[in-house]
Amino acid sequence: MKFSLLISAAFLLSSVSLSSSAADKEFVQTAKALFGTIPAKESAPDKITQEQIELGRKLFFDYRLSKDGSTACVRCHQPQYFSTDRLAQSSGFNGNKGARNAQSILNLKYQPVVHWRNDRESLEEQALKAFTTPLSLGNSSTEEALKRLELAGYAPLFAKAFPKSEKALTLENAASALGTYQRALTTRAPFDKYLEGDVKALSVAAQKGLQEFVTVGCASCHNGPAIGGRSLQKFGVFQNYWNVTKVTTPDKGRFEVTKKEEDLYIFKVPSLRNIAETSPYFHDASTKDLGTAIRWMGKLQLNKDLSDDQVSVIKAFLESLTGELPKNFREAPLLPQEAHAGSELPG
Ligand code: HEC
Ligand code: HEC
Predict the structure, then answer these.
(1) How far is it, in rounded angstroms, from Cα 179 to Cα 185?
(2) How many CB atoms within 10 Å of residue 302?
(3) Cβ atoms within 10 A of the Cβ of 190, count?
(4) Is there a common fold for 2-34+190-319 and 47-186?
(5) What is the pLDDT of residues 34-71, one digit of tens each?
(6) Which of 17, 79, 208, 224 is the most exposed place for a label (fewest CB within 10 A)?
(7) Which residues contact residue 31 at a Cβ distance below 8 angstroms, ignoring those fewer than 6 apart?
(8) Can you tell me whether residue 284 is helix, strand or coil?
(9) What are 154-178's pLDDT values in tens digits?
(10) Whose CA is nearest to atom 15 of ligand 1?
(11) Can you give the three-state secondary structure of 6-57, one letter per residue?
(12) Which residues contact 53 (CB under 8 A, 6 or more apart)?
């Protein structure tokens, strides 16, 4: 289906008989089918969901939940950098370094694939593990993580957000709240207005760039409302990626997780929303420059040497994917007051 959409887009672009504005309007329909919008208004969450979102938000920003107080989710997923950290490798508890570049946690509602190597089933599993992994919050055990939540004064908030749970304060519920919070973080951009029919929401260069993005073949992988995030693909379809990126120790990608030959150098197709704000690029941060990233993609994934003009208009299109940060991410929440529970942390 995706393929036939691409073919029809190519056909459309080559049909000179249409007047330009009629062609523009038709192309909007093609693009809408390939990508899909982030709506202006999402339906309002019910009261319980709202409590869970607010709880997830507090957990996301709370440094007290890490073993040495040095780390919270927000340390590596910072609002000012559109939820990344501008580092090649993130650093977490005890200064431990992550093996790959931090991804954005925005627009995950539209991305079924989690992590560069898809080694997590869901946002909930991702969050659950983050509490106890040494690269993240660094707690030595589930009990230790739970104790920190209790000491930081979270018990009443869990009871409110999970009224049906027999025991509300659990790591599963913490992970569930974090998942619900992250799914609520979307960034609508000028591109969405364009898809809704307001052609002028994109500059002429960005419109040209979108047409290139579709006809050259980028959209065969980067599609859906997040412009990616829906599949895993080989990095370096036409040649080894390190020939072009010049990294000296290539990461084997999903192969490290499954040990299956067919998973060699397979990575998540990342979302390109807000991409102009989330340099450096690729799982190994091999370039800081968006134009270079576009050129490499043409070469490695499509076997095409893109011209300077093509790179420049595609870049203009990608810039039109920068959206507005949701208020409940842009602003830090008020955290609960420490409980006077008098109980000590284990071990
Ligand atoms: C030490 C820095 C660090 C901390 C702390 C951290 N993350 Fe991350 N996060 C990363 C890195 C690095 C990746 C990419 C990991 C990979 O794919 O190998 C990532 C990936 C993710 C992803 C996957 C996004 C995608 O596009 O697939 C989610 C979701 C996420 N983090 C949420 C969280 C949450 C929730 C917390 C807190 C419980 C957290 N992170 C704490 C660095 C961090
Ligand atoms: C065959 C699938 C495929 C095609 C076609 C493709 N990409 Fe990608 N793209 C990927 C994958 C996989 C990655 C992640 C590679 C990595 O870092 O390991 C990626 C990463 C990127 C990144 C870096 C994203 C980030 O968060 O660091 C950009 C930018 C990008 N692609 C743009 C493009 C453009 C522009 C085109 C068309 C010229 C294109 N892609 C074509 C699969 C594809």
Answers:
(1) 10
(2) 16
(3) 18
(4) yes
(5) 999 999 888 889 999 999 999 999 999 999 999 999 99
(6) 17
(7) 9, 194, 195, 210, 214
(8) coil
(9) 999 999 999 999 999 999 999 999 9
(10) 115
(11) HHHHHHHHHCCCCCHHHHHHHHHHHHHHHCCCCCCCCCCCCHHHHHHHHHHH
(12) 45, 177, 180, 181, 184, 328
Ligand whose nearest atom lies closest to the CA of 268: 2
**The residue type at 265:** Y
CB 92 near ligand 1, within 6 Å: yes
Q: What pLDDT is recorded for position 135?
A: 82
Give domain 2-34+190-319's CATH number out of 1.10.760.10, 2.60.40.10, 2.40.50.140, 3.40.50.150: 1.10.760.10
Predicted structure pTM score? 0.93
Please give the distance, rounded to the nearest whole angstrom, from the Cα atom of residue 297 to the centre of ligand 2. Answer: 6
Q: Is the Cβ atom of 76 under 6 angstroms away from ligand 1?
A: yes
Q: Is 108 close to ligand 2, i.e. is its CB under 6 Å away?
A: no
Report which of 144, 133, 151 is spatially closest to residue 346, judged by C-alpha positions: 144
Q: What is the pLDDT of residues 240-257, one digit of tens each?
A: 999 999 999 999 999 999
* pLDDT score, position 95: 80
Residue 122 main-chain phi, psi, to 5 deg: -160, 170
- For residues 152 and 339, the answer to whether their CB atoms sit within 8 Å is yes
Residue 78: helix, strand or coil by DSSP? strand
pLDDT digits (tens, 9 = 90+) for 203-244: 999 999 999 999 999 999 999 999 999 999 999 999 999 999
Fold of 47-186: Cytochrome Bc1 Complex; Chain D, domain 2 (1.10.760)
Let me know: does 264 contact 255? Beta carbons within 8 Å.
yes
139, HSE (Cβ side, Cα atoms, 13 Å): 23
CA separation for the pair 56, 185 (Å, rounded)? 11
> Atom 11 of ligand 2 has which residue's CA nearest to it?
269
Closest by Cα among 70, 48, 35 to 194: 35
Whole-number Å distance, alpha carbon 183 to ligand 2 midpoint, is 23
251 CA: nearest ligand 2 atom = 18
E-strand stretches of 175-292: 232-234, 266-268
Q: Which residues contact 308 (CB under 8 A, 6 or more apart)?
A: none
